[in-house]
Structure formats: C-alpha cells, structure tokens
Amino acid sequence: MDERVPPLRPSNHGRKPPSVTAIFFILLFFLGIGVVLFLKSPLSEIRNIRIEGNELVSDREVLETIRLVKGTSFFHWDAGQAEEALTTLPEVRDASVTKSFPSAVRVRLNEVERVGYWSRGDRLYPLLSDGSVLREDPWEGEVDRPVIRGLNKGEVLISVAKGLSRLSPGVIDEISEIRPGQDDTYSDLVKVYTRRDHLIHVRARDFGEKVKYYAHFKNRPPGTLNLLESTWYVPGTQHREP
C-alpha cells in the first residue's frame, strides 16, 4: 500500500502578528495630519456672521470690537473674550456670542435703552436710560424722542433719563423738550414741553412716577400742569423758550 506523504506547508511559527500599538500610532499619525490640514483649510474658517439687537452700535463697530472678520479661524477665535469686549461699550448692557460648528457665529446685543437726545449747540447726542450721553456719536437720524436742553447737572440728568425709561411709549411720544426749571424752591425742577402745547412742572426725582399722569390731561386745552406736592392745572398758552 502506498503511503501518502502530506504536502509541506510553510511554518507560521516565525511570523509575528502586527503590533496593535504600531497600528494605533500609525492611525494617530494620519489623524493628526488630517486635523492639521483641516485647521489650515477654508473649511475651518468662519464664513457666516449674524449680528442682532444692535441699534446704537453699528455692525462695523461690533466686528471691530470683537476682532472678527470672515475667514477668521473658527477654533482660534474666542467667543467668551468677545462677550467681555462688547460689554465694555457704553451702549451695551450685555451680550451673547455663540459659535456653531463648523463656520457660523451669532452675536446678540442687549443695548442700554435710548430715551432721548441731549442737546449741545446745534448737535444732538443719544441719552441713555442710565443717564450717560454718547458724546462721541452725534445723532444723525430721526429725532423720535424728547430733546433735553440745558440740563448739565449730573444727578438731574440721570434722574430725568431714568424717569423717561419708566414712561410708556404713548407718553414719550407726547414730549418734545425738557429744560431746567430754574426754581428757588426746587433745585431739581424741570419743565416738560409737549406736542399739544402743554407745559409740565415736575421735579427730576419724581419724573418717572408723576409724568405718566399726563396721559389723563393731554386732551385738555393748552396750559400748565404742575406735578409737585399737589397736582393742579392752569389753562393758558405757554410760550416756549428760544
């Protein structure tokens, strides 16, 4: 009987399996190269910038403040630092800056309310609800809020500004000008001129609390409304100061 001899097969005893560690480092190497290429490519750049809630601050000023332009690296630009920078602007109460991967930034501002316009010479400057005046930014737009003339005292101006912020839009629309009262009894007396030829006498400290009652008097004939310790109305046309 013929004996069958099994075929010779190569021995595997001398071959080692691929090292898991080596494979890991190879993959890590190529992954690192991919990340570097991505960070240097246009795919990692900010391409969509959205700014909301700004009326007093222009888009350009916002972008300059947060140092952001299209093409800025999405990963290198810090949204937290941008928020801090925006809150240093006098017009901004607070700000929210968010990044959305891979290329979008949204900036939302909550501005201090503009309540009037402070007059100096022939120029008008925005008056904010905290009493600050934007003296570096003369107003060029529509005059849609009261004009404050001759009020240069800090506390009186601040009280009037805060008072204006408490009034309803309907009452605000009725007021055309606010001037100092020049009264020996009340050092903070102011005179409020309305678009219906009414003159209101009121103390600056009581401005927000008492001027709101003008809504109940506005349909009366021209005259003077005194809102002091007591309230009384005197008919008669009042001539506005030049």
From TrEMBL:
Keyword field: Cell cycle, Cell division, Cell membrane, Membrane, Transmembrane, Transmembrane helix
GO biological process, one term: cell division
Localization in the cell: Membrane
Transmembrane feature ranges: 20-39
Alphabetical list of InterPro entries matching this protein: FtsQ_DivIB (IPR050487), POTRA (IPR034746), POTRA_FtsQ_type (IPR013685)
Protein name: Cell division protein FtsQ
GO cellular component, one term: plasma membrane
Species in which this protein is naturally found: Melghirimyces thermohalophilus
First-listed, main subcellular location of the protein, grouped into a coarse class: membrane
